[in-house]
Amino acid sequence: MQPTTAAKSWDIPAIESPGDLAKWLGLDPGDLRWFADLKGLGHKSDRRRLHHYHYRILAKRFGSIRLIEAPKPRLKDLQRRILMWILEKIPPHPAVHGFVKGRSILTFIAPHVGQRVVLRMDLRDFFPSFARARIQALFRTLGYPESVADLLGGICTNATPRDVWNEIALDVRPACISEARRLYSRPHLPQGAATSPALANTCCYRLDCRLNALAKSAGAAYTRYADDLAFSGGEEFERGAERFGLHVADILREEGFSVHHRKTRIMRQGVRQHLAVLVTNQRMNVVRSDFDRLKAVLTNCVRLGPESQNRDGRPRFRSHLKGRVSFVEMINPNKGKRLRAIFEKIRWRE
After folding, report:
1. Spatial CA neighbour of 213 closest among 205, 123, 240
2. DSSP 54
3. By C-alpha distance, which of 309, 307, 321 is closest to 349?
């Protein structure tokens, strides 16, 4: 295989055979085949000790399901090596801000602050939308032989074992469970693997090029943070925002994605414009209700003890609250200072 023209300049390791891949990962050939699991044996097995992932099922809004698939230590190390030495060498599209070094939720939102109209769209089932065949094809475009690309794709994807759904305790409709079983049964990018965000961003490069060009033609700005798409502009964009959204949906469908239409919002200056968890009308700011809720939690932690507020049973609740306070400080230092003063009064058990 020859790499694509762009890939020739990327400093990625040359791996010419499955044997070379095994040596590069520090595995013997048998273990390499086991971790890649190209025959789907893990999906059929009901022995938890043989599974490569830990699973956690969460209920999302509107009755759907999110599956967190966290790789076990040995597989996690393999994925981190692939991320560090291959995937991080691939430059992301300028419009992408999620899971990219030097970019963040702030750079994702910044182009849309103070705009006349903001269009927000959300992709449905983002990570499971990337099939193993698509990931293997990506590694082939980097110049890896088919046998090597198939194994790399196998290490970075997963078909969820059938028994994972047997003990689901969430109050969700049976149809949603059935849909989730179907969606996650095919090999896909697992949400929880270190390699998944970088692979998703790279696979979306053509999508980002098309959406960025469409936005420029309409006098708008475009950014993406994982499955969140944001467009904004002035009077020219405002006049055709609804029609523009239909064009975006068509492009997404052609690229293999579907839009979560319930989350689509066209926000003009007369209403609160918000992206992710921040308000963007005149300047970037935290949502008032989110600030009030966090302030109430911190105050109750001082009055009643932090254990009374850890309703989700977070093992590192102190770090969780500290991170949320730090985020507010980064966005609005004055509000963050008030929260920090309350946080410092909490008495934690050592």
Report:
1. 205
2. E
3. 307
Find the mean pLDDT for residues 69-82. Answer: 97
Strand, helix or coil for residue 223? strand
Q: Tens of pLDDT along 38-60?
A: 998 887 777 777 789 999 888 77
Which residue's entry shows tokens 């801000």? 97
DSSP 259: B
Q: What is the pLDDT of residue 63?
A: 63
CA dihedral 23, 27, 28, 31 (to 10 degrees): -140
Please answer whether residues 53 and 189 qualify as being in contact, where contact means their C-beta atoms are separated by less than 8 angstroms.
Answer: no
Assign 277 to helix, strand or coil. Answer: coil
Token pair recorded at residue 128: 């499971």
pLDDT, one tens digit per residue, over 154-196 is: 999 999 998 888 777 666 777 778 888 899 999 999 999 999 9
Q: How far is CA 96 from CA 101, 149, 200, 227, 343, in A?
A: 11, 25, 11, 10, 34
DSSP H or E segment with residue 232:
strand 228-233
Question: What is the DSSP code (8-state) at residue 123?
Answer: B
Distances (CA, A) of 32 to 37, 109, 187: 8, 41, 17
Q: How far apart are the first and last CA of the chain?
A: 57
Polymer length in residues for the chain: 350
- pLDDT per residue as tens digits for the range 323-348: 999 999 999 999 999 999 999 999 99
User: pLDDT, tens digit, for every residue of 224-264?
Assistant: 999 999 999 999 999 999 999 999 999 999 999 999 988 89
Cβ atoms of 281 and 273 within 8 Å: the answer is yes
